[in-house]
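Hey,
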Amino acid sequence: MTSINYSQNNPFDLVTGELLPEYGDAYLLGRLTPVVADQVEGYLKKHSVRTRLLLARYHELAATAQQQGRA
């Protein structure tokens, strides 16, 4: 698996401070560098609503994978 390494390596919106959706998906798929994964985990520990949304996204991805025969 390939790790995402964007030029800024910043998983957060520069204006709102929210976790960017592509980083949430990459986190769920284990595709972030360890440093960025730690940043995302720290964010999720502080934002329980976002954690629940990311968990729901995990279930969406799992269901899609299962439908496509990848689970």
